[in-house]
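Summary for the steering committee. One of the milestones for this cycle was to obtain a three-dimensional model of the protein with pyridoxal-5'-phosphate bound, which we needed before selecting residues for the alanine scan. The sequence and ligand used are listed below.
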Amino acid sequence: MADDCAIALGQSHLNLYQRIAEDLATAIANGEHVPGERVPSVRELARRLGVSISTVTQAYGLLVDRGVLEARPQSGYYVGLRARASAPEPSKSRPAVQPMPVSTSALTLEVLAGAGDPGLINLGNAVAAPDLLPTASINRCLMSVIREMPELSAVYDAPFGRPELRAQVVRLAHGAGVRAAPEEVLITGGCQEGVTLCLRALARPGDTIAVESPTFFGTLQAIESLGMHALEIPTHPRTGICLDALEQALAQWPIRACVVMPTNANPVGSCMELAERQKLVELLARHEIPLIEDDACGDLGFAPGPRPPACKAWDRDGGVLLCSSFSKTLGPGYRLGWIAAGRFAERVRHLKQMSSFAPAPLQQVAIARFLARGSYDRHLARARAGYAQRSARVAAAVAQHFPAGTRVAQPAGGTVLWVELPEGLDTLTLYRRAHEARISFAPGALFTAQKRYRNALRLYTAPRFDERMDTALRTLGLLAQQMQDEAVA
Ligand SMILES: Cc1ncc(COP(=O)(O)O)c(C=O)c1O
């Protein structure tokens, strides 16, 4: 590594130690260090980079977790012998930039239904890991609420959400750099409902909605159910939506709204640079196009420390509708989310009231109590570290078990991993074969309105990485290799 360890400033969402780790991983992937080779000692690298010993120790620790390096006691760190270096990352996507009707819901429902089968090893999920949720603490809050407010389920409660929960949401939003007033906050039945309500408030059937490509299948389902069209914008798996392409699309098409996941996007795990966030907000404001910011995974960044500010932090005219939920952080079963809808708050509130009268109160009060205790940040720090480590283990297993030519995204956070198999391998066929082997995953076709990502799949990384998981990934890799061999035969 010459200037070798030159730190890619572009990756500013990463911490210093992660950037050092990424640079070394890239150097290894590029063949600059071969398996079994000793890498510079911690002290030597710290001296060369002018950083602390603990920063390099953390970087090496991350690479050991990913299987890229091996630590040999009394000897130092070596490039892993078994691990083919971490797989290269996918390139920026190149969808056709034109509005298209969406018809993914049948396949999505089939995959979701299949994933519910308890006999399957489910690598198609994106939910939080049960062992990384504070369920016992929240259960205690629920019990106290039931004891103290037994009448709460006997009424249609506050139509826009309980004041104590809205106050906590205001506090959480502040942590994402957003100053929202409690009256701007609307409690929803999850982020999916939030995004759907925003789409309904902003656009009509036939209207065009710009989205990242690939994008979360739930967003495509919402667009499909509302008879709108998706306009997919090229997206980089690490830095997110390409603003040049979006700007061109804005000039060419009558876009009504834009749905973007700037932080830890599902499925690719991208995280936009801070300057790009500001540019995105300003670009859309200039065109008077509202931005629906899906922040469902925003609190699950792998890097320790504060999360990046949401795009809404740069919102000057109320044009950003920030949607999030507690599904990934506290548990999906509470079905609680929220929207800070800026200048559209009134319209979104009306739609919410007309569609479900009021959000369920018991769990709102319980979650508000849990948040008021102040242990959320501690819980989150533990969960984020767990997800980072588990994601790295899955990425290393994919690099090891999947056919040569496989590309693996480098998510900045979240619970999923985007994988692209060599061109020509069809993951819908792989999906059916894997099903026979009792393994499920989310095929790439779910994440686009176009005929794209047929060689891609999304894997679930949140569960504790164990023998069963490793075997399932090895089996998937073998099935993919078989398909590859059949294609050449
Ligand atoms: C990006 C994104 N948005 C929205 C959702 C839906 O979240 P909720 O369960 O809060 O409705 C998910 C869930 O996986 C997600 O990943």
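Key point for the committee: Residues 126, 190-192, 216, 218, 261, 266, 294, 296-297, 325, 327, 332, 337 surround pyridoxal-5'-phosphate (CB under 6 Å).
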